[in-house]
């Protein structure tokens, strides 16, 4: 017997392609613009969101029958904020170095619209296991885009990947820089991320015309 | 279909219970973890101060910032830091817990016109004396802070910067080694004026060869954080000027 039924597998694979949270649902754009100037930050953010969304979806799903519909958004917000604060405090006490690295992401995670979006659209109506898979799937879809954008922005903007120079030294003019190549300073500012995301959306829609809305 | 969860009474009760439950979980967690967190913060301060005076485990690769490990930092701190002073107006006293003084509070006191304390740490390494001064300022999103180690000619021997929430990949790079290393050898004096060190765009010196221009090369895409660092150094130097005058080799 397969570990996951076909329907469950789709929960993971759909957000990676045809139902991607960033390029199709256009959620989580703010953090995709803010932190993709380097690949490492993209990766850290992707992992953090995966944890919070996976756990948050399960909690919301377990509470779905007792949450009053009038205040459900506030309840969702409290769940996210509580989860993030708990993780932050535990890391501060037991893995201080790691918590320093993650500190700047805490605010960005709480305000990530993908998290509230999945709580609202999925976890409130589905069981915990399916909600968990949905959370993992969507954060993977989010992470993939983050990493693609981070890859191009760091490579073209700073000439490095994960902080390691791959194109030579821009100041000493070695490697590619010896031929007159220059880093594109535009790539490290947030608008460049919008353009890269736009190109991804373009590529994705021209490969799959079914995604193009009719006017 | 009306559900019991739609009634006003249920909604209010749910909200109250939720707030109490979440509040007590967080309160319990915060107080249970407090000693651990406090200790980590204490170690971090010691590591930062030692880092500024060049006591760290940085390798030859220019990339990473490596502190003295936390399990030995306390011993190292007491062996390298010979004196911890507290400046209160004209009075200078010794205080072994001066490094725990919260500079943010002291700066707030200055604003309110209340009495304040300024800590200075005097370190000694290989027969050389370092005067390490804490700094506190603001970046683009939130607080930035750090330490600057000077010798008696007012030449920077090392710095350490940190931040609460600058943008990763841009402003957050103030705590990268390549940025902090640029400050080494710079002077905070311009003639006899205490000018500080500016993080300058377009100073046309990316390798930072000119050490007497009171400028280091800025970080691309982090103008406001860089300006924050400049302002923080300037303010700190201004604040400590009377003390620095007393130690400056004439």
TrEMBL record, chain A:
Q: Which controlled-vocabulary keywords does the entry list?
A: Cell inner membrane, Cell membrane, Ion transport, Membrane, NAD, Sodium, Sodium transport, Translocase, Transmembrane, Transmembrane helix, Transport, Ubiquinone
For this entry, list what GO says about its biological process: sodium ion transport
Q: What class of enzyme is it?
A: translocase
Q: Enumerate the catalysed reactions.
A: a ubiquinone + n Na(+)(in) + NADH + H(+) = a ubiquinol + n Na(+)(out) + NAD(+)
Compartment(s) where it occurs, according to its Swiss-Prot or TrEMBL record: Cell membrane; Endomembrane system
Q: Name one Pfam family in it.
A: Rnf-Nqr
Query: Can you name a GO cellular component term?
Result: plasma membrane
How does this chain sit within the bilayer? Answer: Multi-pass membrane protein
EC code(s) of this entry:
7.2.1.1
Give GO terms: molecular function aspect only.
oxidoreductase activity, acting on NAD(P)H, quinone or similar compound as acceptor
Annotated membrane-spanning segments are: 41-62, 74-95, 101-119, 140-164, 184-203
Fetch the InterPro entries from UniProt: NqrD, NqrDE/RnfAE
Q: Which NCBIfam families match?
A: nqrD, PRK09292.1, PRK12405.1
Subunit-level organization: Composed of six subunits; NqrA, NqrB, NqrC, NqrD, NqrE and NqrF.
UniProt cross-references to PANTHER family, sorted A to Z = ELECTRON TRANSPORT COMPLEX PROTEIN RNFE (PTHR30586), NA(+)-TRANSLOCATING NADH-QUINONE REDUCTASE SUBUNIT D (PTHR30586:SF1)
Q: Which family does it belong to?
A: Belongs to the NqrDE/RnfAE family.
Q: What does this protein do?
A: NQR complex catalyzes the reduction of ubiquinone-1 to ubiquinol by two successive reactions, coupled with the transport of Na(+) ions from the cytoplasm to the periplasm. NqrA to NqrE are probably involved in the second step, the conversion of ubisemiquinone to ubiquinol.
Protein name according to UniProt: Na(+)-translocating NADH-quinone reductase subunit D
- Give the organism the record lists: Maribacter spongiicola
TrEMBL record, chain B:
Gene Ontology MF: a single term: oxidoreductase activity, acting on NAD(P)H, quinone or similar compound as acceptor
Topology relative to the lipid bilayer, per the entry, is: Single-pass membrane protein
Q: What is one Gene Ontology biological process annotated in the Swiss-Prot or TrEMBL record?
A: sodium ion transport
EC number of the protein: 7.2.1.1
- The answer to whether UniProt assigns keyword rRNA-binding to this entry is no
By its UniProt entry, which Pfam families does this protein fall under?
A: FMN_bind
Quaternary structure, from the entry: Composed of six subunits; NqrA, NqrB, NqrC, NqrD, NqrE and NqrF.
What is the recorded name of this protein? Na(+)-translocating NADH-quinone reductase subunit C
Q: Which organism is it from?
A: Maribacter spongiicola
